[in-house]
Write a structure and sequence with these properties.
The structure is a single chain. The protein is of the alpha/beta class. It folds into three domains: 102 residues, Alpha-helical ferredoxin (Fumarate Reductase Iron-sulfur Protein, Chain B, domain 2), CATH 1.10.1060.10; 157 residues, FAD/NAD(P)-binding domain (3-Layer(bba) Sandwich), CATH 3.50.50.60; 139 residues, FAD/NAD(P)-binding domain, CATH 3.50.50. 34% of the residues lie in helices and 20% in strands. The protein contains 16 helices and 19 strands. A five-stranded parallel sheet has the order 3-2-1-6-19, sandwiched between helices. A five-stranded parallel sheet has the order 8-15-9-10-11. The chain is globular and about 65 Å long. It starts with 22 loop residues before the first helix and ends with a helix. The structure holds iron/sulfur cluster (SF4).
């Protein structure tokens, strides 16, 4: 068994990249842990899970106890076990690295424990966390993604009544709509959202977003506090000619259609696909294109591999799935014929003596019939009128308070830490405690 998931790519759209460990594997792996004092793996976890304690509980053959330790800090421990880049977080920090040793497979042990607990809860119907006596306070949460639901869950634990407003028809946010199927197979995101909401005291209003059915002003009047856990709903464009050609698509939309494929039909994929970007959305779109049957998939990035936000492990996964990764290429023009995309012109880039990215005169043309843009997303600012924004994000203080009294924010719409699901969960949890303090005056 490898430390992290295998670097050989998924073989089908339903392939589970890092399947659940067997009890025997989990026992053997957990027994390798040194249960370090002041463990570096804990410091590397954005949610501060007590990793040595949960691993010891697995070694003592109490996986549901281990899951309780995990979920006390990170209620989305099941998703994070699957999608966290553990290779640059807890597992990179593990003291077992180096020499002949490999790090403890923390992510896979976390999945083993959380899966066991969720199964037990599904059978018994008993939620492992209880609500405090009612405070009589009402809080609105906007967005049912990881930040919003983590906040709602913690607020419910603290005895507050919560109303969640979600633009889409399902809860889970990026967990439900934005994670490649090979990382989270089947309907895990739906089951996990149901589990999180199982604590009670949380009501969800679907099909409602700021500017569509609710407004920030109304929520501030109706509720004692508001938490904004909205995602980045606007796709960033390339700003080059040809973006409107048929065959040019946004990678996030492509992944969403694929994940929701059972109801709306699988997206068509081109024969020759170029994915533009260097983050994990680009990696996911490229790998999924290959799995859908594209003959050639090129991932083009304007900087080098060290600057990609996708980790080395993810880059390796793409390569072993048959994706050709081409660095130092900045898109200049999407070419077409008869309204359809036929290729892209890039200019080659390089770093100058001062380390600044500059363009050379060399033009590189890649023929293709599909272009997927994965160059980031932006906040739909018009919905957030009245709040102070900076660099396209909501400005918050240390206690997650925005510039408006009683309105808090966290997750993707703010700039509080790394752009990761686990960070969004931590934001939601800590914001719930800050709201609790605010409500207590
Ligand atoms: Fe176990 Fe590694 Fe964490 Fe130490 S650093 S407690 S060995 S997982």
């Amino acid at each position: 068994m490898s430390g992290a998931a295998s670097t050989s790519g998924p073989e089908s759209l339903d392939d589970d990249l890092a399947p659940r460990l067997t009890p025997r594997q989990a026992l053997a792996e957990s027994s390798r842990c040194l249960y370090c004092y002041d463990a570096p793996c804990v410091r590397a976890c954005p949610t501060g899970i007590d990793i040595p304690t949960f691993i010891r509980r697995i070694a003592n053959e109490t996986p549901t106890g281990a899951a309780h330790t995990i979920l006390s800090e990170n209620i989305f421990g099941g998703t994070c076990a699957r999608v966290c880049p553990t290779e640059v977080l807890c597992e990179q920090a593990c003291v077992m690295n180096g020499g002949e040793q490999r790090p403890i497979a923390i992510g896979r042990l976390q999945r083993y424990a959380t899966d066991a607990l969720m199964e037990e809860v599904r059978e018994s119907g008993a939620h492992p966390f209880t609500r405090a006596p009612s405070t009589g306070k009402k809080v609105a949460v906007v967005g049912a993604g990881p930040a919003g639901l983590a906040c709602a869950h913690r607020l419910a634990m603290l005895g507050h009544e919560v109303a969640v407003y979600e633009a889409k028809s399902k809860a889970g946010g990026l967990n439900e709509y934005g994670i490649a199927a090979y990382k989270m197979v089947q309907d895990f995101a739906r089951k996990e959202a149901k589990f999180v909401l199982g604590i009670g005291g949380i009501k969800i209003h679907f099909g409602k977003a700021l500017g569509r059915g609710v407004s920030l002003a109304d929520l501030s009047v109706k509720y004692d506090a508001v938490f904004l856990g909205v995602g980045l709903g606007g796709a960033r464009g390339l700003g080059i000619p040809g973006e409107k050609l048929k065959g040019v698509d946004d990678a996030v939309d492509f992944i969403e259609r694929l994940r929701q494929g059972k109801t709306v039909g699988f997206p068509k994929v081109g024969k020759r696909v170029v994915v533009i970007g260097g983050g994990n959305t680009a990696i996911d779109a490229a790998i999924q294109s290959k799995l859908l049957g594209a003959a050639e998939v090129v991932m083009a990035y304007r900087r080098g591999p060290d600057q990609m936000s996708a980790t080395g492990y993810e880059q390796q996964l793409a390569k072993s799935s048959g994706v050709v990764v081409r660095d130092w290429l900045a898109p200049r023009k999407i070419k077409g014929a008869g309204g359809k995309v036929t290729g892209i012109d890039f200019v080659r880039t390089k770093l100058d003596a001062k380390g600044k990215l500059v363009e050379t005169k060399e033009v590189v043309t890649i023929a293709c019939d599909m272009v997927l843009k994965a160059v980031g997303q932006t906040l739909l600012e018009e919905q957030l009128a009245g709040l102070t924004l900076k660099d396209g994000k909501v400005v918050v203080g240390k206690n997650y308070q925005t510039s408006l009294k009683g309105i808090f924010a966290g997750g993707d719409c703010t700039k509080t830490g790394q752009d990761l699901t686990v960070q969004a969960v931590q934001d939601g949890k800590l914001a719930a405690h800050a709201i609790d303090q605010y409500l207590k005056g």
